[in-house]
UniProtKB/TrEMBL annotation:
This is 7, 8-dihydropterin-6-methyl-4-(Beta-D-ribofuranosyl)-aminobenzene-5'-phosphate synthase. GO terms for molecular function: transferase activity. It comes from the Eukaryota. InterPro entries: DHPS-like_MBL-fold, Metallo-beta-lactamase_dom, RibonucZ/Hydroxyglut_hydro.
Length: 348
C-alpha cells in the first residue's frame, strides 16, 4: 500500500466515453497499452437469418460508433484479485453526448459506483445529470448483480456562479452554468463535497486536494474569469484552484494519473502525484494537458520536464492539442497512446 492509503491494483481499464477525437482504426504503438484498432473494438450486431451476405456473421453499424465532443468522460475500472471498483471521471459537455456515447460503447452503467468531477467547467460537468439518472436507473434493473444504491458524486465545494473568459479585445464571454448541487441531488446523486486529499472506493483511487503551483511557466488559463452573483462582477479566475486529479497505483508499474484539463499545469500535476505517491514512479498520465493554445516556449518546457519524469505511457486527449501530441511522438517514441472517444484501453 502506498502513502495516503492508496491500494495497489492489478489492472486498469479505461473506457473513453467522451473526448474530442475519434479513431477506431489506428492500433496501439505503445506495447504497454492494450486496445484494438481496425474497428475490432467496436460493438457488433448479429445478422438475421437469411441476410443474403454469404458467410458474414455480424455487422458493424455506423450508428454504434461514438462521436467526438469537446470535453472528457472516462469510465475507469480497477481490479485487484477478484475485486473491482468503477469510477466515472467527468461527464463531458452535454447530456446528449454522454447518453449517446455511453449507450454506444455499451458501458455497464450499473457498475459505476462513484462520479468524480475534476473541476467546474461545463465541458466536464455538462453530462452529469443524465449520467446520474442513467446510472441509477441501471442499478435498479432486476438483472443486475449490484445493490440498488444511488451513485455518489464527488464535487469541489467551490462551485462558481458562472465561468467565462475575456477575449484579447476585452469582451467577456460566459460559459453555461455548471449543474448546481441541488440539481445533482434532485437527479438522484449522493453529493459529497471534497477539497482535501481523500481515498475513494476502498483505496483503489486517490483524489487530490488543491494542486500546488511550482513551475514558473504554468500560470493557469489565460483570460479565465468567474462571475460573482452577489457583487454582479466578473473577476479574474485563471488558476482554476478547484481542479483535482485522481491517482491509481498499478502493480509493478507505478502511478497512473487522471487529469481533467491540467489547468494547474501538467508538470505541476505530475510532480504533485509523485509527491503523494511516496516514492512510486510515474507510470502513466491520462486526460487533458491543456496545451492546445500555448506558445512554443511553454510547449518545449513542458516536454523537457515531462521527459525528466520518465512516464512509460502518455494518453493525452481533450484540450492537449495536436502540436504537443506530435512533439511527444517525436521526442518519446512508443510512449504516446492518444485518448480516443469510444476506445477501451487496458493497463496491466
Amino acid at each position: 500500500m502506498a502513502s495516503h492509503g492508496l491500494v495497489e491494483v492489478d489492472s486498469i481499464e479505461i473506457k473513453v466515453i467522451v473526448d474530442n477525437e475519434v479513431d477506431p482504426i489506428s492500433p496501439s504503438n505503445n506495447p504497454a497499452v492494450q486496445y484494438t484498432g481496425l474497428f475490432q473494438g467496436q460493438p457488433l450486431d448479429p445478422l438475421p437469418p437469411g441476410h443474403g451476405r454469404g458467410d458474414a456473421k455480424a455487422e458493424i453499424k455506423m450508428e454504434n460508433i461514438c462521436c467526438g465532443a469537446h470535453g472528457l468522460s472516462l469510465m475507469i475500472t480497477t481490479t485487484k484479485g477478484d475485486k473491482k471498483h468503477t469510477m466515472l471521471f467527468d461527464t463531458g459537455p452535454e447530456e446528449s453526448a454522454w447518453e449517446r456515447n455511453a449507450t454506444r460503447i455499451r458501458a455497464d452503467m450499473a457498475s459505476i459506483e462513484h462520479i468524480h468531477l475534476s473541476h467546474w467547467h461545463r465541458d466536464h460537468s455538462g453530462g452529469i445529470l443524465e449520467a446520474v439518472r442513467m446510472i441509477n436507473a441501471a442499478k435498479m434493473q432486476p438483472d443486475t448483480n449490484t445493490k440498488p444504491q444511488r451513485v455518489t458524486v464527488d464535487l469541489h465545494p467551490g462551485r462558481p456562479d458562472y465561468r467565462g473568459m475575456v477575449t484579447p479585445t476585452g469582451m467577456i464571454v460566459s460559459l453555461e452554468a455548471d449543474p448546481s448541487f441541488d440539481e445533482i441531488e434532485n437527479a438522484g446523486g449522493v453529493v459529497q463535497k471534497n477539497d482535501e486529499l481523500h481515498t475513494v472506493l476502498d483505496g483503489f483511487f486517490l483524489a487530490s486536494g488543491k494542486i500546488p503551483r511550482g513551475t514558473p511557466y504554468e500560470v493557469g488559463i489565460r483570460g479565465g474569469m468567474r462571475f460573482v452573483k452577489d457583487t454582479g462582477a466578473w473577476i479574474s479566475d485563471e488558476e482554476i484552484v478547484d481542479e483535482r486529479m485522481v491517482i491509481c497505483n498499478l502493480k509493478g508499474k507505478g502511478l497512473v494519473v487522471f487529469t481533467g484539463c491540467s489547468h494547474a499545469g501538467v508538470i505541476n500535476v505530475c510532480r504533485h502525484a509523485v509527491e503523494l505517491g511516496a516514492g512510486l514512479p510515474l507510470y502513466a498520465v491520462v486526460g487533458g494537458f491543456h496545451l492546445a493554445d500555448n506558445n512554443p516556449e511553454k510547449l518545449a518546457n513542458s516536454l523537457a520536464d515531462l521527459k525528466m519524469l520518465q512516464p512509460k505511457v502518455l494518453m493525452p486527449g481533450h484540450c492537449t492539442g495536436y502540436k504537443f501530441k506530435f512533439m511527444i511522438e517525436q521526442a518519446m517514441p512508443a510512449v504516446l497512446a492518444p485518448s480516443f472517444c469510444g476506445t477501451t484501453y487496458t493497463l496491466a
